[in-house]
Amino acid sequence: MDIINQTNRTMLFEEINPEKLDLITIVGDVKGIDSLSDDKIKEINSQLLVRSFDEFLDKFSPTVYSFFNAANQKVVYMLKKPEGIAEEAISEIRIDQHNDFLKMLFTLIDTKRSQGMTNVDFRFEHLLDMISPKKVMDDIRQVRKEIHYMYGQYEKLDDEDPKKLDMGDKLNAMFEEASANYNNVMAMLPLAIEDIKTRLLLGSSNEEQDAEAVQIGMLTIGESGELKIIEAPKGESTELVLLDESSSNDLAQVFEEDYNSITESPSGYVKDLVVRTFSPLPAVSTDIDLETEVQNYNTYLEFYKTAKDDFVKTVKPLVEKILGVKMFFDQYAVKNKGMAPSLLVTNTKLDMIVKSANIPRLETYLNTVNSKNDFSDTIWFGIVPSVELETAGKVKVTRERFKGNEKIAKQDGNTMESLSMLMQVVKDFKVQIFFSFESGEETTFNNMATAGIDKYIDKCAPLIRKEYSEYAIPCIPNFTVIPKEKSGVVIDSRMVQTENGAQLSKEKEDILKLWIEGVYVGASYVAAGIVAAYQCPEYLKESFKNTSKEFPGVRFDIEAGENSLRAVTTMAKEITGFTNTIKDSINRKNFGFIFSSENAQLQGKDIRRITVYKARSLAASEDGFDSIYKTLVSTYIERILRFQTADFKHENIIKFFSNNPSSQKSMWLAKRGFINSIIHDGDDMNYVIDEKNNLCHIDLIYNGNVKNLEVMITKGTSPVKV
Question: How far apart are CA 614 and CA 629, in angstroms?
Fold first, then answer.
């Protein structure tokens, strides 16, 4: 660990935010140069390298751009900033922890994980309504509560009290968050919807009854002793409000001033809405124009539903990438952090990177970080999600008799051709690429449980028996966050005017619902995440007592013994398992990095998480395909050998493999009993020097299977002593 201090830096070949810098742009022109300067590597790291999910959101600030189209009265959403439109006409929606859609997905993943339920039993609808106006309003109420509490504390303190100044900073931050939406009509719509609903339905004890006119009153005893509720005198009620709610009144003024000063084109209606939302006063306005309010409510609701629908469809591919990155980092769930995984995001599409003009830039970057004896920036793994998977056998429909799925333009996936071009480059720098197929119903656990793995093997055929095959790792199946058939969100019901006031319609056609159409996470993110996590000795130590702090987890074989039941993913189970037929087929073919959602126990405890079933690359072996750890150990040993032999000097190679107790081979053999030992029982290392061709052939033996490694010898000037 003192020579190679990390074996888990991972490169994500994906575009997150086209407005931010990307690897190709930063590397720039590389004509006539073999390596980038240290300053350039430092710049790449400062722009593109992230060590946590929060840092990823911070550096790349994933964004959706929107503008209003007056021609069709709709909101248009785009993942790229639209050109040719005035800056002030474009709204930027940050997709971060505060975004209601992303927040809902995080909650869903965490709840599913804690309950350990399969998709068929999990009640998705209980969490999906988090993006309805009602739930958005609940979040605002919580923010409001915190602002009122903080403001109350702030007012009690003396002006120059340092504590008051600290609270002022916190209040400023809270107001900043609240005010971010003043100019965003879309963000104000849920408030307007709930505000009208609250005022119109104030008289109904529950939403199913008609609302009646409301007049705030007071309880009195009449002259003959009878109980009476009479209308409260206006003057008195206001005085009471001022006495008891002086801080609320002050806050109302603060919000009013804040709105007027920030908003570009103030609206009296929105100003009142902001004040009512963030600082409601106990004075109730009774003069409601019922017809207008009901009409406004229904218009807002329809508009919100359509806009939310369009937003979800646009943002979904971006959200799936964000979830992927979160799942990559989530796999490293340890109390004591050690060799934490890091992610270098190229922030450009794969087909752009593998264009003939750009390949030299990628090669120069990888040559700089992977071909030196300084390993702090070495890239060990790569992630390529969303590789296209065409499936044959769909009937072409000439006439639509029934309403079917709308034909929507498919999101651009990565092609097999782009992937093979990438593999051609990265093999020379020994980067192992985890790739997964495009997300959807075709690539889920459910689908694999019925259809098996043959379509994946067929699709990977062009990558088999190639020089780079051992560096290509197909990851299956993808993870389902929300299944397509359970992805309906009820927004609310339309409102109707009645004789006594207003009520929510009970008619089925008046219930407004949108469909998310399923949300998925590419298996490559989780596969790379778990492999990057178990490189860290601290991670292994939490599940395996016999872990050495001296070695990374390069030789850890997750398929061996109970290893996969100890080093589990953080993903909740999805199905009850694969049939024996499917499992026999997987075991016979030994193909790919396969996840399993099986019933399993370890020391009497149920395993309620998804585990790794196979961890194979596309390198063909006697029993199917080779384990990924063999390539990783081979890369690790070659890098240690290069470092310790000063670039493969003849006499140093002999010393490296000698029986001398201080040789590297002897030291590895002496420490064989650990889960992460470089050489296990049954393993061995031998070498043969080919003097004629200046080559050293190294045989790495894993449980009787031989893997060959070949290095070019640097001749020394002094005679060799054996």
Answer: 12
Enter the DSSP assignment of 385: E
- Quote the CA–CA distance of 183 and 167 in Å, as a whole number: 26
User: How far is 565 from 14, CA to CA, in rounded Å?
Assistant: 31
State the pTM of this model. Answer: 0.86
- Coil/strand/helix, residue 52: coil
Q: Is the CB of residue 679 less than 8 Å from the CB of residue 699?
A: no
Cβ 382 vs Cβ 11: under 8 Å? yes
For residues 536 and 347, give the distance between their C-alpha atoms in angstroms, rounded to a whole number.
Answer: 26
8 A C-beta contact, residue 158 and residue 189: no
Determine the Cα–Cα distance for residues 241 and 694; give it in Å rounded to an integer.
93
Q: CB 421: neighbour CB atoms within 10 A?
A: 17
Contact 23, 60 (CB under 8 A): no
In one-letter notation, the amino acid at residue 301 is L
3-state DSSP assignment of residue 423: helix
Which H helix or E strand runs over 163?
A: helix 162-179
Collapse the DSSP code of 535 into the 3-class scheme (helix H, G, I; strand E, B; otherwise coil) and give the result: coil
* Residue 702 β-bridge partners: 705
Q: What is the percent of the chain with per-residue pLDDT over 90, rounded to a whole number? A: 53
What pLDDT band is residue 240 in, cutting at 50, 70 and 90? very low
Contact (CB, 8 A) for 387 and 436: yes
CA distance 186 to 66: 10
Say how many Å lie between the first and final Cα of the chain, rounded.
28
Distance CA 585, CA 192 (A): 57
The yes-or-no verdict on residue 472 having pLDDT over 80 is yes
Kindly report, residue by residue over 538-586, the tens digit of the pLDDT: 999 999 999 999 999 999 999 999 999 999 999 999 998 899 999 999 9
Length of the chain: 722
Q: Measured between alpha carbons, how far is 33 from 31 in angstroms, rounded to an integer?
A: 6
Determine the pLDDT at residue 128: 72
3-state DSSP assignment of residue 224? coil
Burial 66-104 (b: 16+ CB within 10 A, else e): bebeeeeeebbbebeeeeeeeeeeebebebeeebbbbbb
C-alpha to C-alpha distance for 83 and 106, rounded to whole angstroms: 33
Q: Are strands 342-345 and 9-12 parallel, antiparallel or unpaired?
A: parallel
**Model confidence band, residue 283 (pLDDT cutoffs 50, 70, 90):** very low
Tracing tokens 């109904």 back to the chain, one arrives at: 204
